[in-house]
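ok new one. same drill as before - structure tokens go in, u give me an amino acid for every spot. 91 of them this time. try not to just spam alanines like last time pls lmao
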């Protein structure tokens, strides 16, 4: 099973590298992705420590960062909604 996981990981890296080189994306997309990631971290930090929503804490980890990076502000709303529904927290 472990070998299959490594095989899939290596195949994904090879295909991703091929796509990046084929489309001549350069490193511009990496700068945009980094900026989105930084803004997502700042937004989650503000939500957690500003006191606007005191009963809800969203941990800053790769899953939440990825959600907010890809979805933006609706991602924060999604995480808040999931947190409140799954753990019975009411704002």
């Amino acid at each position: 099973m472990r070998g299959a996981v490594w095989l899939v990981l290596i195949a994904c890296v090879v295909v991703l590298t091929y796509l990046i080189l084929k489309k001549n994306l350069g490193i511009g997309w990496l700068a945009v992705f980094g900026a989105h990631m930084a803004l997502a971290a700042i937004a989650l930090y503000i939500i957690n420590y500003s006191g606007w929503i005191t009963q809800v804490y969203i941990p800053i980890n790769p899953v939440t960062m990825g959600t907010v990076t890809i979805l933006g502000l609706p991602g924060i709303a999604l995480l808040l909604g999931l947190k409140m529904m799954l753990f019975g927290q009411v704002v």
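The mean pLDDT is 81. and btw Residues 28-49 form the longest helix (22 residues).
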